[in-house]
Design brief:
This protein is mainly beta and 153 residues long. Helices cover 0% and strands 42% of the residues.
Amino acid sequence: MSNKSSRSNSSATSYDRDSDEGRESFAFNGLKLKGGSGDDTLTGGALNDKIEGGRGADRIDGGAGNDKIEGGKGNDILTGGTGADIFEFERGDGRDVITDFSAAQGDRLHLDDHVAYTVAQVGSDVVVSLSSGDQVTLTGVSLAQLPAGWITL
């Protein structure tokens, strides 16, 4: 069963049906969206959203606002949208891609449970490799243009 989400100009409405567990969850006004164990598509709105993917290969778009985004387990594609977004990663989150990381807008990468990591420029992307084997790719970002403090622990 496919998961659905929709967005209007002033709020976000998300519908997620997790067929494995037989539960449904709804989130309105862009306040909090949470995925299940499938491959979810979650889209925030104009507010400061908290969006968490589940265990699948999720696609998350924060929309406008200063969002807090966590892909969860699985290899996820994350887009913060406009605003100063915080992308959170924990041990076991997989190999995620952030499509629009912007230090100029105040975006930050927060690493939980990771004490060691390396950062490298790979072509036109910045790749953060974590000691747990997880990886975060910031597409179209130049390492030379990232300010101090763009990674927090």
